[in-house]
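Duplicate of earlier report; Alpha-amylase family protein input re-posted below.
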Amino acid sequence: MTQLQGTSHDVPAILADLTADQVDREFLANAEVHLPRLHDLFAQLYGDRADGFERLASVVDLARRSWAARPADLKALDRARESEPEWFESERMVGGVCYVDRYAGGLSGIRDSIPYFRELGLTYLHLMPLFESPEGNSDGGYAVSSYRRVNPKLGTMADLAELAAELRRAGISLVVDFIFNHTSNEHRWAQKAVAGERGYEDFYLIFPDREMPDAYERTTREIFPDDHPGSFVQLDDGRWIWATFYHFQWDLNYANPAVFEAMAGEMLYLANQGVEILRMDAVAFIWKRLGTTCESLPEAHLLLQAFNAVLRMAAPGLLFKSEAIVHPDEVVSYISPDECQISYNPLQMALTWEALATRDGRLLQQALERRHALPAGTAWVNYVRSHDDIGWTFADEDAAELGIDGSPHRRFLNDFYVGRAEGTFARGVPFQENPRTGDARVTGTTASLAGIEAGDAGGEDRVILAHALALSTGGIPLLYLGDEVAQLNDYGYSDRPEEAGDSRWVHRPFRPAQNYADRRDADTPAGRVFARLTRLLDVRRATPEFSGNELIAFDAHVPSVVAFLRPGDNGFAVLVLANVADSAVEIDALTLSGMAPEALDLVSSAPIWLGVGVTLAAHGTRWLRVR
Ligand code: OTU
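Output:
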């Protein structure tokens, strides 16, 4: 490994400088622990660059200044988090996600919604991208023009900081996106880079002609083929710039340590506004190397670890959440206390829908058995659906063991969920169908995908079943707000020019006011789903077995049944059973004979006798406390 050369910027020298400056004792203590790690990561990432070193010293200085400016209440939070590092693994954790404008009109509307969030029991609120971004299509705000200015239609940065404090007082951690793979083409850095301004030329990946773009594109994947082919777009002056996603989202060049420093500054700025969790967007794409897919390269991990080390020095209470919607082996590779402590669980999400479509629970059961475990000090974020499409990211090699051929199975699932398959209950919409590769993904709200929109008899049960799994496998369950009142697809997006080309807008409806008005009315789907789902939320919160991540797969001997135990104290455990079939099934007494016959149904609060077996209704789920 290359070492950073010179004497003035090695670890002892930087620490000595900090000591001489009589830097804050707490900062120094954190720097002593994390600077050696950061130095090592810098050596690996930037060791062969003349400026690698100075950048390290200036990043440490940035961290020092950021800590000095960190408000006292946030420093108190840092200490609280450090003394209870497992806080986010609690059974009391429940997340919600919404668009600020669509759900509440603006940041003040979000504030007004806090009583409702408390009623649901939320402890984590992910507000979708809310920063300044281009007018019209901005990929739902995922094209950021300034990380320090809130979109003026939503409020101001001061409003955001106040909201964060108010949420914190309500026991809710604010989560925002850290969209650091790319900026919008309107970001100040982007404009300077294109103008060739000194210091900014290498902030992005710009090439004079097609030679390098063609070379890279031989191995990269098309992400938004409806927008542009390949990974590059042409600038007005004829040059080519790297743009993995939309043409107005330009990828940053992290091989340049100035980019690392600049983004570390934006990250620390947000941390000091009171954001408690950063959702690290599109982590797989942040490092590029010719001849590779340019996804999940080893340097992507080193970069995340370096950002993590900076945070540990200057905002130690913060968490990173990984957004890697990729092969399951890669998803877990981002999860560790030193990298991203929490991560979306796209495999469980996709396989829940897979099981509902096939009425066969085996692929999901297999994933719970072999792909659920995580390192200590980390957690899954389990969700039924997000603001993005559903991609079928299961491992072909896992599927093959069950006799399932990956490609045709994905084709079946796509057809099923966009309503093209015989007997489907789903009303989804295709997303980014690529006729060249056969790739496609699916969009739709939970209720529309599960059959409520189509009037299928099992629709409401499937919504509950999918949530019952997300609430019980271990980790932070994340609700897409509005789904708890069974919101349906919003086809109006196709009439709105800036949304029409992106079918993900079908499942990002405005706050469904009528559904919320109906939520106490048991004669409506909204009322029934809300009553059943809030019951599950209440039970989860009171069930310590649901904390942490330990899960023991249980073979129920029925292919349509997903089953597992969540062990607790004193020999008790919760047995979770979910039946994806359209008819009731029996789990026989012999299968359950390893447990004491007396058990408790946690949802109905009724005792149950396992000695006669257990009946699961069509699309039924049960949470049973056993021993
Ligand atoms: C993310 O998703 C966001 O969640 C999307 O809303 C953005 O459009 C995108 O980044 C760009 O900022 O391709 O279809 O893991 O699946 O990062 C969604 C790889 C996406 C991608 C994921 C990306």
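Residues 25-46 form the longest helix (22 residues).

Merging into the original ticket.
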